[in-house]
Amino acid sequence: MKVEDLLPEKYRDQALDYEKGMDTMDVWFDSGSSWATVFGKSGGPKFPADLYLEGTDQHRGWFQSSLLTSIATKGKAPYSSVITHGFVLDEKGCKMSKSLGNVVDPRTIIEGGKNSKEAPGYGADVLRLWVSSVDYTGDVMIGTQVIQQISEIYRKLRGTLRYLLGNLHDWEAVNAVSYNDLPMIDKHALFQLENVVNTIRESYDNYAFFKIFQIIQRFVIVDLSSFYFDVAKDRLYVGGTSSLTRRSCQTVLAAHLLSIARVIAPILPHLAEDVWQNLPFQFTVQDGSAVKFVFESKWPVPNEKWLAFPIEEIDFWGKILQLRTEVNKVLEAARTGKLIGSSLEAKVYLHTSDASLASRLHEMCTASNDADALHRIFITSQAEMLHHVEDEILKTIPYSGEYLIQGSDRVWIGVSRAEGLKCERCWNYTPQVGSFVEHPTLCGRCYKVVAVQPEPAAAVC
């Protein structure tokens, strides 16, 4: 085209004053200058952008052209941060291609395919959870097996949240037990929760979503379920509805539910909102107004008191968790040997030359607070500290072993049949069963709960 053809009509008589350039214009100039339009509007977002996000092929493309145009005209970059990501490949690590038939359609993952058995719909949250699970800085793989694995993790997480909701059905904020009155096991649980929330916050700030996925999977699905929830079942289901140990446990469960729902919301908004709409109690902010939606609740407020859990207690509870793992090994050996079936049929014996650890364990064996009692943590009927391990004692303890607890001397662990009879209500074994005339099949704890229950009202004919 001639210069006259390129100019607007009113400038064509000045064609001799213009020269037609023959250089190729940077093909990325249009998108590279998009910041000028986005930030040029009155009342629009402020310059520069918090984040530019694109694939690794844009290092010399959009990122570069945006940087050059902005530096040239503004003297600074148009973004505060840049994130580059890899590309999605199939399960075998191959590039997706229609000709190969290995294209994974996000809509099919969410809604399902024509054959619901071969391609079931998993919902948007499962796809989002997969995105959070991968290290997006490199190429990532997706396929049927990968999504099935993620779906299973999602199902376990949902199950954990349902457990929390179900055990808070009769709880309200007025039932909360003050921090100073909580058993040590509950204070330790809140310490762990606060650490997890802080770590997740840091990971969000650094866009390390795969770390959040790992933390949630390990803490919510593994740590909570395998220890705290497992131990808590006894006082949640067996204790009186208004007992201190039950209310203290519910206080901790409520804190976990509210925190977990909020920290997963950016990744799993549908699940988080589902939890929020089914809260059995009302969540209010400082001004007393109720929060109707999870995204109105904001991030959990940091709790310095929970984080101030003494260092020596952190160390001790770390040993308790190790000890519980080793006790379970001896219990499993006793179970294999047909000595016991359920762990509640067992009595655990402990001995250690570590005087400090022995003293603490002895305190827990005789704890007045049932939640911190050692046999409750082991989920056995009894636990006893031995000052000495003599041959006469060993003859009565058929299963035993010595185990190294980190930071301490070795701990000798023995298991025998529990003493006494089985309580038909809590299934714990105790010599107390048979002592109460009105309820001869109950232990002392269950007798106290049952004895104070009001008589049912007589039917009116």
TrEMBL record:
Reaction(s) this enzyme catalyzes, per UniProt: tRNA(Ile) + L-isoleucine + ATP = L-isoleucyl-tRNA(Ile) + AMP + diphosphate
Keywords associated with the record: Aminoacyl-tRNA synthetase, ATP-binding, Ligase, Nucleotide-binding, Protein biosynthesis
Domain of life: Eukaryota
One Pfam family from the record: tRNA-synt_1
GO BP, one annotated term: isoleucyl-tRNA aminoacylation
Domain Methionyl/Valyl/Leucyl/Isoleucyl-tRNA synthetase anticodon-binding: 186-349
Domain Zinc finger FPG/IleRS-type: residue ranges: 420-449
One Gene Ontology cellular component annotation held by this UniProt entry: mitochondrion
Name this polypeptide is given: isoleucine--tRNA ligase
Organism: Salix viminalis (Common osier)
Lineage, top ranks: Eukaryota, Viridiplantae, Streptophyta, Embryophyta, Tracheophyta
